[in-house]
Amino acid sequence: AQSVTQPDIHITVSEGASLELRCNYSYGATPYLFWYVQSPGQGLQLLLKYFSGDTLVQGIKGFEAEFKRSQSSFNLRKPSVHWSDAAEYFCAVGARAGNNRKLIWGLGTSLAVNP
Amino acid sequence: NAGVTQTPKFQVLKTGQSMTLQCAQDMNHNSMYWYRQDPGMGLRLIYYSASEGTTDKGEVPNGYNVSRLNKREFSLRLESAAPSQTSVYFCASSLQGVGNQPQHFGDGTRLSIL
Which residue, A39, B1, B54, B83, is the most exposed by fewest CB within 10 angstroms? Predict the structure, then answer.
């Protein structure tokens, strides 16, 4: 069955430290890949997406993600975290073919940032 | 540029009451979605509409109905609210209902059922 796993439910980092949020997927072929961020009390906002080509993709707010086919992973990274990055982060995958019109969502990783 | 607008933002209901959550998008998107978000359970799809005039069930459709009123509007109705439906509800839209289309979200409706 298709699935998305975000192994870390909660992560705490210090401001200025680097960040990596993990995302693994189970899919028949390489899917479309997305990362979204949800600030407290807000809806979800698209950070970045991977469709094809360069496996390192840049997004908004200084985030990047790397697609690794061999590991079925799409991990999100940021070199230096700011206090405003405290939020919930969701990984999602979409089908490249067929009639599946829905995104499959991970359960999210909650990020706390210490001053 | 409003994007996806949900009304109301907050609502408290009593068990058995009915209500309709409204959603409108101004991006000329064809596909629209309703999700619920509960602690530890991520986003779960309730219903979606791939295009105007069509609706389909998602993962958790029981207790809900939807109406795609026109291309802009997609409403979610609770006919007889139950405490288990206490949740945050998000409406989203995408240009097309295919896997490579990012979804754009509203700010949510926080619904409590007593």
Answer: B1
